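[Meeting: bench + compute handoff]

Bench side (C.D.) handed over the final construct sequence. Compute side (W.E.) agreed to return the predicted structure before the next meeting so the bench team could plan truncations. Sequence as handed over:
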Amino acid sequence: MGDWMDRVVAAERLRSSFSAQFQWDTVRVTPDKIAGRTVADAVVVPTEVPNHPFATMDGYALDTADSSPRPIAGSVETADDPEPLADGTAVEVATGASLPEGADAVVPVEEATVENGCLIESTTAPGRNLYPAGATAAQGERIFDPGDQLAPRHAALLRDVGIDQISVRSRPAVGILATGTEIARGDQPDRDSAMLANLLRRWGTEPTILEPVSDDQSHVTAAIERATAEYDLLITSGGTSVGAGDHVGSVLAEHGPLFTSVALRPGRPTTAAVVDGTPVCALPGKPVAAHTAATLVLRPALAAQTAVAEDPAVTVRATSDVELPAQDAEYAVPVALCDGRAVPTGQGDDTGDLYGSRFRPGRVASSTRVTLADGIIVTTDSIAAGELVQVTPFEVIE
């Protein structure tokens, strides 16, 4: 691979720099603000939940050891604190109502026969149609450990077990710096920064988009030094290739780069270094290349710090041949998922298409329309029509 670094190795080097440089504070948040946060301290349940079994259907609570008929001795609603069950009786219960002490099952209304105020022969088994005490959580149980990532669904559990606040890691502050005179002057839009900010926010950081900087080495150097003094992590876009106006790579080269390029296309001109104690990851300026490198290199590097999930893939058949250039690198081929098949995005014979049978990563990297794809096939081998391929959906890596 020459100077190209395997993307997994590159991600690991970035991860190590994050571990060495990030300083984590702990903050307390309420359950309505936990999504995407990383647990700082173990979460321990203060008391058994529920502390009584409750009915999961409308019906009659009883002791299965008793015999029929059973006089119906009252009713229990969801807000009631019931008296113990009298021997040989049954109690009418609503869904969600606590069972009286001594009851071990519920006969649903639709299965019950009631005559003259008594529950007639009703066969049921212990534990039927009830939710046991302690089934949600036991007293003293650890339900989350440090490093676990919290999701929206976990708020229901936290509320249920009586936890109103939880300690989580602070979010790393990330600066996003676009480079390019054409962007700094407003001649062309900044196609990368908003995309990167959305990704980084999803990945558990607090991103800030900085003012773009022109293609002047002194300006680029000053902008990087200012940002690394203020943020925990700096992400740049553009200026990583070998053109006369590409200065980000040369600035980072003065700081002992972690890597200077990645064996990934699109996304190869990705470099990283630690500048004055702050990690800097420099991405290509072409939007799809920046997205590919961010999702396949930067995101895994952040995973150990912010508990980003693993990358599941789906197996489908490719609809057409895609020939890859003869280079020792991984290729990220964008595809649409249609009727259980992978259709290469941008492939075709029309003048507006990006490539024919041979994949052209440079063209693909420049096309924001490619963002309409559903995912990517990451491969080192050409793809044959009808072949089973692994597609990583964008929704699981973004």
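W.E. noted at the follow-up: The chain has four domains: 7-24+170-306, 29-47+138-169, 54-131, 314-397. C.D. will use this when planning the next construct.
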